[in-house]
Write a structure and sequence with these properties.
By secondary structure, the chain is of the alpha/beta class. The protein has a single domain, classed as Metallo-beta-lactamase, Chain A, CATH 3.60.15.10. The protein has seven helices and twelve strands. A hairpin with a 2-residue loop joins β8 and β9. The longest helix has 14 residues. About 45% of the residues are buried.
């Protein structure tokens, strides 16, 4: 019997700006009144002859600050400048996976209209009419520029393989249609979590993030990630460094 050898992808954390939020946004019902500056990480994945982005970050800090919270980008944190740090250009990107359609996860989708986009069908439907508490987070950036509904592959089911060794899993809770990405790497399976979890403190609880549509679903999704991956790249992890491409946090590392 032949053995299938899965490709091992390189994953790099690319920062596309900061927001200042209350700590309770990161971890549900904890840290009220404590401000926290959180980065916005995009995962740049390379392998199998493809360049893949998981989420596309912030495009207009002024809009974010006007509508929600303080937000800023350094000169090397705009979309083109951040990608240039790994010698990528927008036109080089083959695939974009959106974990969900909140503004800070899809604002630069229109910069790569030639890419293949993946979002869950549940998220697509929810984004059309979100609950009132999340309405401001959905600014329809995913339909800017040349993009339309036909630009998107609507992921129909759980455990969806985009490429060998690159799997989408449903992780509802932060939004009903949220998904995370399992990536086979040289250091084991890495989960690009999106916003279902953004701190090892959440795994230790377990405790979901502060913005969610279902605490029950969020807790189940945290356990799903725990059982599926060794390491995590969390979208707003304050412990990562720019262009980090190895040594991502292990899920159990903060739970001794």
């Amino acid at each position: 019997m032949s053995t299938v050898t899965l490709p091992k992808y390189k994953v790099t954390a690319v920062n596309m700006g900061y927001m200042r939020v209350d700590h309770s946004v990161m971890v549900y019902d904890r840290g009220f009144g404590t401000p926290l500056d959180i980065p916005t990480w995009v995962a740049a994945i390379e392998g199998e002859g493809a360049r893949i982005l998981v989420d596309t970050g912030i495009a207009d800090p002024a809009w974010v600050e006007r509508e929600m919270v303080p937000c800023w980008q350094g000169p090397d944190e705009t979309f083109d400048a951040a990608l240039s740090g790994i010698a990528w250009r927008a036109q080089d990107i083959d695939i974009v996976i959106n974990t969900h359609l909140h503004h800070d996860h899809c604002a630069n989708n229109s910069r790569v209209p030639g890419a293949r986009f993946y979002v869950t069908a549940d998220e697509w439907e929810y984004a059309a009419s979100p609950v009132a508490t999340q309405r401001v987070l959905y600014n329809k950036a995913w339909l800017a520029g040349e993009l339309s509904q036909f630009s998107y592959n609507l992921v129909p089911h759980d455990y969806y393989d985009v490429l060998p060794g690159l799997r989408l899993i449903k992780t509802a809770g932060h939004t009903p249609g949220h998904q995370s990405v399992l990536v086979n790497t040289a250091e084991g399976v890495l989960c690009v979590t999106g916003d279902i979890v953004n701190s090892l403190e959440s795994f230790a609880g377990p405790t979901p993030c502060g913005i969610n549509t279902s605490v029950t679903e969020a807790l189940a999704s945290i356990e799903k990630i725990r059982s599926s991956a060794l390491r995590v790249l969390m979208s707003h992890d304050t412990t990562l460094t720019k262009y980090q491409n190895s040594g991502f946090p292990t899920i159990e590392s903060d739970q001794s």
